[in-house]
């Protein structure tokens, strides 16, 4: 996707998961700024509170999300936001989260869905054919990257909650040092072991 080339190249180049995660969070922050943050986060938060409080049931919540998504006219960020809200409603059916978690969980889920939509959903098929022998290996790699991404994704979600329009949203500071040129040149090619 436009703006997501660095993590895609790192993924194809067999970079460590932590380095890929750093590139993802930077691209995610830029994507949120370009897309206007998290549209209608307050409306979705209120919907979740109503379900958690028992004012409406989960099924009605799903129906309201479907209506909201139809009214959006296919806007990508609102559509992804509705997908994230559905994932939270499924969790409500399984357990009741504390009221303070609503908006933070929703923002974090929104960020995860954007990453899936903009990066993993697009590179998965290419990586299975070129870098991984099968889909299971690609899935294991994706889980490693998501695990490395999670702390920065939560920080970014907290910033998004503080500024839902994302006008001044920036990625958290780097936690992983970039590899220097000597390390990159000494990296084995195609799994070869250097002598």
Structure description:
This protein is an all-alpha fold and 195 residues long. It has helices at residues 5-12, 17-35, 41-53, 58-71, 76-94, 102-130, 135-162, 181-185. The termini are far apart. The mean pLDDT is 84.
Question: How would you concisely characterize the structure shown here?
Answer:
The chain has eight helices and no strands. Helix 1 crosses helix 6, helix 3 packs parallel to helix 5 and helix 6 runs antiparallel to helix 7. The mean pLDDT is 84.
Give a topology summary.
Elements: H1 5-12, H2 17-35, H3 41-53, H4 58-71, H5 76-94, H6 102-130, H7 135-162, H8 181-185
Helix pairs in contact: 1-2, 1-6, 2-7, 3-4, 3-5, 3-6, 4-5, 5-6, 6-7
Keywords, please?
8 helices; 195 residues; single chain; 69% helix; elongated; mainly alpha
Q: Which percent range fits the helix content?
A: 55-70%
Kindly name the structural category. mainly alpha
Work out the strand percent.
under 5%
Give the end-to-end Cα distance, rounded to a whole number of Å. Answer: 39 Å
Q: What is the chain-wise order of helices and strands?
A: HHHHHHHH
Task: Tell me the number of strands.
Answer: 0
Biggest sheet overview: none
Mean pLDDT: 84
Helix count equals: 8
Shape: elongated
Question: What value does the Rg take, in angstroms?
Answer: 19 Å
* Assembly state (oligomeric): single chain
Detail the poorly predicted runs. Answer: none
